[in-house]
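Why does this matter for the project? Reviewers at the last site visit asked to see concrete outputs rather than summary tables. In response, this paragraph embeds two records directly. Each consists of the residue sequence and, immediately after it, the corresponding structure tokens. Nothing has been edited or filtered.
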Amino acid sequence: MKRLLIMLFVVATFGLASCRDDDNSNNSNNTNNTNNTNNTNNQDGDTIAMVQDPSNPNFLSDGETVNLKSVVVTAIDRYGDYTGSFWVSENTTAPYEGVGVYNFDTSAQWWTDLQLGDLINVTGIKTEYNYNDEFDDAVTQITEPVVQRLGTGNPIDPVSIQASDLLTVEDGEQWEGVLVTLSNVRVGEVGERDGRYEVSLYQSTKAQDDMADLSSINQGECLSKFTGIVTYFFGYYLMPRSASDIEVAADDSACPTVANEICDNEIDDDGNGFTDCDDFACTGDPACPAKVENTDELCADGNDNDDDGVADCDDPSCYGHPDVTICVEESCTDEVDNDGDGYTDCEDFDCAQDVACDGSFETNCTDGNDDDGDTYFDCDDMDCNDDPACIETICDDEVDNDGDEHTDCEDFDCLYSDAACQVDQEVTDEQCSDDTDNDGNGFTDCEDFSCQRSPLTTICEGNAITCADGVDNNDNGFVDCGDFACRYCDTNNPDNNRVVSTCPPCSSN
């Protein structure tokens, strides 16, 4: 999912950037070697602190024009599928004195010539990017940039910070966009994660391969130096610029020894900023019972047991869960939403078979008529989804028995019920955990929608059961409705929203 999330992030911002008008005629491409000392605190323009530091008396608001003079290039993204962005700083690295410039114009001459240490002028728009308003810390960027390259300079040194400085917003915000170095950090888990190579750092944050190949880093290594630009995407992480930003320590004992999280001692044993049951390492531990609301007992106790902001029959985990029987419309004529699902009386599917609601639902699914007047009839009407006439029960007769334009194994009714249809598919626990793209659609195991949505899988987040069991089924660090496989809300394009029935609906605001 992260791969999809990142792609959506890039596409959304690219739409903003596409209307920029880079004025390449402003490029001076000065051939003189202009040293960084020529930067006089941007007296003729804005400072990066005015962009990043809320305590600055001249702090710029989101959407205001930014005019930076003689700032120093600290990082350039020329690696991977999405390139063009770069980062700048004042002539020394310090808190709140680095910022990213979101650029995709890689055809401009200034971009071709751009090098680390260059002095440039940048004019653009200050943009606070917050994906679906779900970040704890919006990412500050300069978008729609017009760049003037003044000439070459001296690359500046990173600022040394503590490994723990990137674990919280309170500590990490000041370093966003800044080139920093961590010293003597131990490497935790490494490897592919949602299509990207990721390196976790013990008692600190993680690093990802945005600007450089990190696959040479080995789990357990002690790194005497780890340098990169700080950015944020559901947490802070580092972006090393090249292999030279990473140094393996000659003395392994210089780094701390990794400890496992003990889930009931109120200590952050593994030093990742999360303690006991708040640490994903404790998911499934007997000391940390799952936070769920998916039984008749839990849906009638008046408590928000799964901490999603709604309780009992107001919670989709109750009224949408197949095992919960109490959250139903008790009366179809009292003008009361008895089960709290937002639908009253004959508007509620619970009343489909009530005689008082004749004409409100498609009651005959084979008569060729639109019985309820909603412009859908028979098996094309959702009211008929569970009608035997609308379920493909013969899966090898080459006939579209239920009239849904899907025949035999192409019909989900067969795919999930007939063993012969599961050959070369990706719908069972076995098929969704074998590291093989069984159905040849380019997605493997839990990254495949068929694994996420299949009622036959228990190891992938994405269906009504796995999105309400309190378990990180696909082991990606996100549980139930916190996983995009269960609940994805796109505020820019609601048509992209995907929400499993046991998760809260996307806000209509």
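We now turn to the second protein, recorded in exactly the same manner.
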Amino acid sequence: MKCRFLAAVPVAILVAIAGLLVIPGLGDVRALDAQPVEKPAEKLDDASKQPKPKLAIHVGKIITCAGDPITDGTILVKDGKIEAIGRRAEIEVPEGYQVIDQKDRFAMPGLIEAHSHVGGSDDLNEMVYQTNPELRNWDQVVPHNDRLKVALAGGVTTICFIPGSGTNMGGFGALMKTGPGTLEEVILKAPGVLKIAQAGNPERRSGETGSGRMGMNFIIRRQLLEGRRYVAQWDAFEKGEGPEPKVNLRLENFKPLFRREIPVVVHTQQYQVIQSTIRMLHDEMKLNVVIDHGTFDSYKIAKELAKRDIPVMAGPRGFYRDPDTGSIRGIVHEYAARGVTKLGLNTDAPVVPQEELFFQATMAVRYGWDEAIAIRGLTIEVARALMVDDRIGSLEVGKDADILITTGSILDPRHHVTQVLIDGRSVYDVAKDRRRF
């Protein structure tokens, strides 16, 4: 998959195509109560009420993101999982399976967004304290809301739904599917990540108090030290090596974080700020760190990230005008050229509309990133960074059947998504769900 079609597409045309995808406002959605509740059965979307079908999907090419592409391939789906995958001539379709024959089209894993704010009723920004580890946003989830419906048309099947960046530690976020269903059906993992923001947005706010970057790093570190001590006390107790600690609900979600079961996603950018991220969060606290944003001249510290194997989910708007030379640099390409291999992208939706995630990769390739690697940067590399690659990110036996059917490469804006399956159910079909602009 090493064609260079994007080199022939002028930037002006790519940007114009992206402009067609801008969506209107979120529309009328409801906040959920503090305790998650299911929608009444009669109001559930039709797709979620139907049993998961048994499917045999025939396509011209399968991009598995787990190995070489498969030409003239077949995917069997059962109970929402991939049951078999391979060459059509080698896969026997059992009786009772619904056949979807798309022999002139591509199949690939659903796209995964590493940094999104459109999964629920509103962004979570508590602006009283600078750290809020007690906050969580999965009580705000509104399945299949208006923005997520349009995201499906762009091939996005999973988002990392996180609190906002108004403070240095906004709280814990959830990994969720974009299709219809109950909360239990759409939430993939909660808590899924801790959200930290360094500099940038909280820096502007903290100007009122004068804490500055050094003060913000002090506050973040102090909060993490408190959380680490709490988890260490519980770990000792569970090993029979200490007394039972008093439960502190404010610190409970630090347990999966310091046990390295979930990562911290860090809104961090510019190489000086990322240097603090590396030193404090990775080297000292030993956390699984994901660099979200990582924009501007952040690639200058890429070699240090590569040494530590820290993933970078760059964006939004992954290009930078170098003030020294006046040239435009592709940020993802610059990271790759300096040895970072765990690379992906994000939109920070709604900063960039959620359905334009693929276009972030399109532009990254236009500015030098490898096309085959870019596909992985929309899928499996994001799943690995978010620690859910056992479920999503590639088309492999046993994984969730989150599948896109496209007219060609997702990176080529002349092609488009025609059908989306999540957990084996068809949740978007261009024949009936096409958006009216």
